Amino acid sequence: MIALLMYGNLLLLLFLLSAAVVALAVARRFRVPGMLAYLVVGMALGPHGLAALQESHEVEAFAEFGVVFLMFSIGLEFSLQKLRAMRQLVFGFGAAQMGATAALTAVVTWFGYDQGWRAGLAVGLAVAMSSTAIVAKMLSERFELHSRSGRQTMGVLLFQDIAVVPCLILFPALAQPGGDLANSLGIALSQALLVLALLVWVGQKWIRRIFDAVARQRSEELFVLATLWLVIALAYATGRAGLSLALGAFVGGMLISETIYRHQVEADIRPFRDMLLGLFFVTVGMLLDLGFVFANLHRLLLAVVLLVAGKALVVLAIAVAARSPLNVALRTAAQLAQAGEFGLVLIGLAHELKLIGTDVFQLTLSAMLVSMFVAPFLIDRAARLTGQMAHGDWAHKAKAIHDVAVAGFGLQDHVIICGYGRTGSRIAEFLAGEKIPFLALDVDPQQLNRPVPPGGRLVFGSADRGEVLQAAGLGRARALVVAYPDVHSAERVVRKVRETRDDIPVVVRAPDETAVLSLKAAGATEVIPEVLEGSLMIAAETLAQIGVPMERAIGQVRTARANRYASLREYYDAAGQVKPEQEQS
After folding, report:
1. Secondary structure of residue 30 in the 3-state scheme
2. pTM (predicted TM-score)
């Protein structure tokens, strides 16, 4: 019997994995966010589809750890110092967003759907939540966690995670008229603050020591196990105290971010995060009842518009009131306009406690799920429409473009360097040595303070905007170098350059070989993977150290480069040596 059960579960797992692999491959092929593939798998195989998968508390609890690991990895991007700097965003912007959204939704539910104020408040609080899983994952993949809109969004999401606890206590009290709401909420908030303060105090004392001891054992297996233990232990601690599991994981990641082990921990946790997060999105997709959707399409479309547009307008108004530039406010609004996974929990609890009727529950649940489906497209569309230049209102943009045009005035046959970090500044030194003029663009104030070699100019500007590239003299330039550390930004720049000039050589820096094909497809002339170059020099030094003549070792490096870089192939002979005519030239 046990064997039959085991094989049955194994077959179900194989079926689920097969569907996920196919759906994810199709999503990658058509450049659709992977999370939508998992949502479609859940819809197709769930109880409202083919009924191959059934809802269960075990699967839901397991899937919840996808959000836990995601929040842990997001915590690695922050630190206590950054969180203190964000306190106004978390408790100011976050509280304003949640309060205003809940209040307006409560009014619409109360009067528009003929529900009582208690039902309206329950629906309002559930709808006010946004999806940490969808938004944080997209911001991380797009390298926008530390952009201005990204910080605002993460501040609101962190407040929502904290607010889950009072909501879980408030709902049962709402279901029992006469309960002492103020006293219950006060106890919940005090408990939350006490637990978080204790975690931070203990974590600062012990986490570094634990990982120091583990690292001394020089065991990769032990390091991974210690990381998993820490994530689950902190999630358990906050869950036991009545807080969300994800909040404890975020605190753990934030504490580790202040240690030297941050990058190793991030690499170890990523496979678990991505697999479990995929399972979470499958369980979310299982909730959507397509029969109800089609039977109530007009009502549902109205509810989705009210939810998405209403939340977006609330966030937009708060962001503008906080003096955020319009493009930043629009991005933040798009990133927070959907419902969230904790909202699904709250609306389910409200239905279970009979705060809302079945029709309101189904309509609200369906609208929340649809809003989560459209969220990736909405966020991507908002990013394309705004195309922000790091700081910017229109006056600032006009001044920035003017400054670029002034810096580029008179330059002819120059090189445009996009990104002036370590790689960009080193390229500038080589160009200056050959007396080749260049214009470097960057939006990071720290990079703008770097010294500039003679013959070059450095100015604030975002190279993924066509007007900035034109002001930098793209039409007169002899070459363009993209030295950005992330692939998404580099790809946007390459595509923007190719919209204007097909003939200009575009050389792009890439972290490794995995980004080469996408950058080449975008129009890069040549892509230089840093990992490849580093490995070539390490290989040459290794050969030299074990007795291979240096000339032969360097020859092998030249051969590898000639095979890898098409533009260099003509400069080397069959032995990997520089051709004499090239040396003379």
Report:
1. coil
2. 0.58
What pLDDT digit, counting tens, does each position of 175-233 carry?
766 556 667 667 666 777 777 788 778 877 788 888 888 888 888 888 888 888 888 88
Residues 366, 313: Cα–Cα separation, whole Å? 21
Angstrom distance (rounded) from CA 372 to CA 379: 11
Q: Decide which of 3.30.1330.10, 3.40.50.720, 1.10.600.10, 3.30.160.20 is the CATH code for 390-524.
A: 3.40.50.720
What type of residue is 104? L
Query: What is the CATH code of the structural domain delimited by 2-386?
Result: 1.20.1530.20
- How far CA 26 is from CA of 40, 239, 379, in Å, comes to 12, 37, 21
Degrees to nearest 5, angle at CA 9 with 32 and 49: 45
Token pair for residue 499? 């919209």
Half-sphere exposure of residue 320: CA atoms within 13 angstroms, side-chain side? 10
> CB-based contacts of 227: which residues, under 8 Å, 6+ apart?
265, 268, 269
Phi then psi dihedrals of residue 305, to 5 deg? -60, -45
Residue type at 456 in one-letter notation: G
Strand order in the sheet with 526-529: 456-460, 438-442, 415-418, 479-482, 506-510, 526-529
d(CA 492, CA 144): 14
